[in-house]
């Protein structure tokens, strides 16, 4: 007998509208004794079927919803169809031409697979489970990925804090097949990059910024560019390939700067690339105090908040960071400013830019408001997935 999870009165509308996260506070009662990872039915307080989901008593997201068809349980064929749909989308985006050899294959909620992220790097898959719902089906999903993609190997990467959030005990490692080369070299259009699928950040690289790297090239011919929080050099090296005069790159990680240096050499721009190891905020303060000025400043900081409790503090940090960036921009310069904090909305970020403009006495005009590349689609049912914001701004 399928377990029924019943909602409190006046809590059903978001789930009839296909939002996939049912928080504990919305639930009236649970009929039966579901174990972590068990399939359940979500029902309104009047008993009307809403969706099939997976139960996790250890998470604030008590049920993750996957199917709104009462006749479509969460069996192997269901998950295979979801994977096939996601793969078909990426085939349409990239084909077999080899112009882009690393991309997001499965993007969690947007592909109807809440809590699963899969990136493809050449012949290897980098898999990240962020929910017990799909981690409890790991063996089946890995088998399906092998069947549908024929990879050379599959690597598991874990996200910080996943044990506390989901009660999930998993660790990084090779799940199947051959270990990937270290480094693994992949292509994004005319540029080549290295990724470390075993120890690199995220699943190995920052594939979501691919199109924003390319967009930057339209603006920077002849520019002196400052790339803060550069990691592997994505923005700065793309700028040099687009005709920038020189780049000063800042990152606090020596390992990241070493990767960036190799990427600069690999792409033939190392003679115009200079890097300094420093905290991004402190580096900007030092450059401001020294009277340095740049034609373009890029800010791509790590996630500044993971909780709503820390949101105001994060917005203050974004404000300080962008105000410092504006202080080292020449009049008429370009500010490229990013946020990968999903809790920071576009409205929040644009209000922050407005406040920076007023307090700095500068006129800021948004030229482009970008996001993640199209292999990182967003579900209209789950707007929280719209995590990446990348604004190209003219600063007079």
Describe the structure.
The protein is of the alpha/beta class and 396 residues long. It has three domains: 3-67, PUA domain (Archaeosine Trna-guanine Transglycosylase, Chain: A, domain 4, Roll); 76-177, 2-Layer Sandwich (Transcription Regulator spoIIAA), CATH 3.30.750; 206-395, Vaccinia Virus protein VP39 (Rossmann fold). It is 29% helix and 30% strand. It has eleven helices and 20 strands. The chain has helices at 13-16, 76-94, 132-135, 138-149, 162-166, 210-216, 234-241, 254-266, 280-289, 311-327, 346-360; strands at residues 3-7, 21-23, 27-31, 39-43, 49-55, 61-67, 102-107, 116-121, 124-129, 153-157, 173-177, 184-188, 191-195, 224-228, 246-251, 273-277, 294-299, 329-339, 364-370, 389-395. The strands form four sheets. Strands 16-15-14-17-18-20-19 form a seven-stranded mixed beta sheet, with helices on both faces. Helix 2 (76-94) crosses helix 4 (138-149), helix 6 packs across helix 7 (234-241) and helix 10 crosses helix 11 (346-360). The longest helix has 19 residues, at 76-94. The protein starts with a strand and ends with a strand. The relative contact order is 0.09. The model has no long low-confidence stretch (mean pLDDT 94).
């Amino acid at each position: 007998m399928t377990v029924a999870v019943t909602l409190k009165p006046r809590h059903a509308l978001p789930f009839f509208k296909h939002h996939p996260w049912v928080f504990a506070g919305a639930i009236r009662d649970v009929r039966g004794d579901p174990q972590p990872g068990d399939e359940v039915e979500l029902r309104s307080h009047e008993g009307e079927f809403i969706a099939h989901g997976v139960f996790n008593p250890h998470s604030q997201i008590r049920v993750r919803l996957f199917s709104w068809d009462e006749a479509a349980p969460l069996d192997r064929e269901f998950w295979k169809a979801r994977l096939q749909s996601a793969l078909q989308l990426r085939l349409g985006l990239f084909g077999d031409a080899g112009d882009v050899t690393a991309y997001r294959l499965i993007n969690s909620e947007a592909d109807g697979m809440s809590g699963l992220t899969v990136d493809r790097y050449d012949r290897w898959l980098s898999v990240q489970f962020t929910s017990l719902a799909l981690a409890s089906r790991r063996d089946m999903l890995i088998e399906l990925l092998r069947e549908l993609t024929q990879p050379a190997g599959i690597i598991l990467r874990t996200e910080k804090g996943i044990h506390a959030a989901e009660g999930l005990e998993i660790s990084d490692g090779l799940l199947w097949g051959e270990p990937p080369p270290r480094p693994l070299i992949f292509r994004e259009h005319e540029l080549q990059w290295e990724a470390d699928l075993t120890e690199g950040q995220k699943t190995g690289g920052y594939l979501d910024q691919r199109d924003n790297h390319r967009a930057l090239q339209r603006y920077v011919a002849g520019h002196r560019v400052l790339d803060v929080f550069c990691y592997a050099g994505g923005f700065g090296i793309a700028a040099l390939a687009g005709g920038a005069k020189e780049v000063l790159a800042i990152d606090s990680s020596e390992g990241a700067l070493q990767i960036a240096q190799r990427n600069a050499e690999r792409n033939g721009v190392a003679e115009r690339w200079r890097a300094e190891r420093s905290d991004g905020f402190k580096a900007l303060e030092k450059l401001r105090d020294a009277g340095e000025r740049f034609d373009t400043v890029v800010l791509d900081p790590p996630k500044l908040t993971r909780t709503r409790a820390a949101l105001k503090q994060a917005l203050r940090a974004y404000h300080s960071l962008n105000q410092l960036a504006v202080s080292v921009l020449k009049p008429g310069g370009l500010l490229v400013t990013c946020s990968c904090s999903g809790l920071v909305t576009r409205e929040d970020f644009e209000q922050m830019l407005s406040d920076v403009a007023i307090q700095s006495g500068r006129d800021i005009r948004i030229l482009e408001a970008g996001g993640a590349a199209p292999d990182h689609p967003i579900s209209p049912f789950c707007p929280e997935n719209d995590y990446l914001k990348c604004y190209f701004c003219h600063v007079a």
